[in-house]
Amino acid sequence: MQVVSISSLKGGVGKTSVTLGLASAAMSAGIPTLVVDLDPHADATTGLGVQANDQIDIGRLLKNARRGDLAANVVPSGWVNNAVKRGSSTTAPVLDVAIGSAYSGIYDRPDLGKRDLRRLSMLLERVEGYRLVLIDCPPSLNGLTRMAWTASNRVLLVAEPGLFSVAGTERTMRAIELFKNEFAPNLAPAGIVANRVRTGSNEHTFRLNEMKQMFGDLLLSPTIAEQANWQQIQGAAHAVHHWPGESAKQAAGYFDDLLRALLDSGRMRNRVARR
């Protein structure tokens, strides 16, 4: 089971959008996936079309991590029913969600100790049946992001090709290295996704070249072009793979390629680690 944190220390770069795009690609590829919505804003939960009943949200599960049953409290994404109705799958795909809520904000503090940082790890250790876990992190390096990194194999960074976002990505890379040395020796960067790229922008072209020089092979291909109707797709709580139109089809292809790059990099790191 690959556990990947989707992170950025700068808000507004489309981190949740990338999480949703990867979840859509995983569902389309038939990869059993769990999305953990660790951001107190719970935007991923909304975008995934979740309709909870009596399930316990991730914040309250974290509070009772020793006895909490994450598997009993995940909710299927509303995208799954849409996929079945469309006839795009002969069997219902597995795309489950650990529900986000503002309650998880009680752990978004800079002073969590090692025991608290293990709370999400304890919940995930008792979960089976998924090949991929995507953790949507808040845009900060407080307790929730550190908790996610502790539970993860890798961290996927999201950045826009702009000055402040590139500088923030460099800070995040340093933070991952420091965190790895102190708390999570097996943690590794999965790569960097350049998001909301405008192909006709000279500034974006310049910053992309700068990112290639700074980060080398960690800058993943493809970059994700700015999607004019992305807000509409998310507002309708639809998978991008199920949205009509050529631009959505193109965006779906970006995320298919990005998911393959993400999984391939994980397999390569596993082979190196076994040696």
Provide a descriptive summary of the structure in words.
- The structure is a single chain.
- The protein is α/β, with parallel strands linked by helices and about 280 residues long.
- Helix 1 packs across helix 11 and helix 6 runs parallel beside helix 7.
- The chain is globular.
- The protein is built from eleven helices and seven strands.
- The C terminus is likely disordered.
- The protein starts with a strand and ends with a helix.
Question: Can you give keywords for this protein?
Answer:
275 residues, disordered C terminus, 13% strand, 7 strands, seven-stranded mixed β-sheet, globular, alpha/beta
Mean pLDDT: 90
The radius of gyration computed from the alpha-carbon positions, rounded to a whole number of angstroms, is: 18 Å
C-alpha geometry: globular
How large is the count of helical segments?
11
Q: What strand order characterises the main sheet?
A: 3-4-2-5-1-6-7
Number of strands: 7
N- to C-terminal separation?
Answer: 19 Å
List low-pLDDT spans: 271-275
Largest sheet: 7 strands, mixed
**Which structural category fits the helices and strands?**
alpha/beta
Helix content: 40-55%
The SSE string, one letter per element, is EHEHHEHEHHEHEHEHHH
The percent range for strand residues is 5-15%
